[in-house]
Model the fold of this input.
Amino acid sequence: MAENKKQQLDNFDTDFSSFLSTADWKIHRDAAAGLANTFNAKADYLKAIKSGRFNIAILLANMEETSRGESFLRSDKKGMVKMGKLAADAYENKQYRQIAVLADNLVFKHLAENLNLAKRPDFETLTDHDLFSKGLVPNEIFFQYFILESLAKDKKFNWERDEKIISQTFILAGICFASIYDYFEFCDELREESRS
Done:
């Protein structure tokens, strides 16, 4: 079992390295598929590549619509609409990292709420690195959050590449984003059931 985990991490590292910087869209596509495979979403990624669905820029631009269905988004509908406008403007102006930053900030906000991080005595000094090193990010969304955070903050990620690579990146980001919010919704449902 430990060997499988090590192999999985080795594969992730190899795919992540290619994902960060390759200029070849086919290698990038395969690396992104490998990353999606880490959290059992390779089939979703390949299907989305064919259809163009799950693009994070489109997801964020449609935040008003999204906020009607998800309980954690409904509470901040005005903020979601504003975020959607910011994402649409950033996409139009090809400020792709800004879209990744918006997604990362939104996920962090809801992650902090979901895990009650504000109640921690070290909340004010908690860093992104701490979230991972202290095991605060749930295993169910660990890789997805790592990918989204990397798109926003890892300066090695090259946003100045072919539009096909940008599209592939946003599709993977969209799948990560949707997976994380599916997990949050699942946690909300569990909390509701426990109150009943």
User: Anything to note?
Assistant: The two ends are 38 Å apart (CA to CA). Residues 54-195 form one domain.
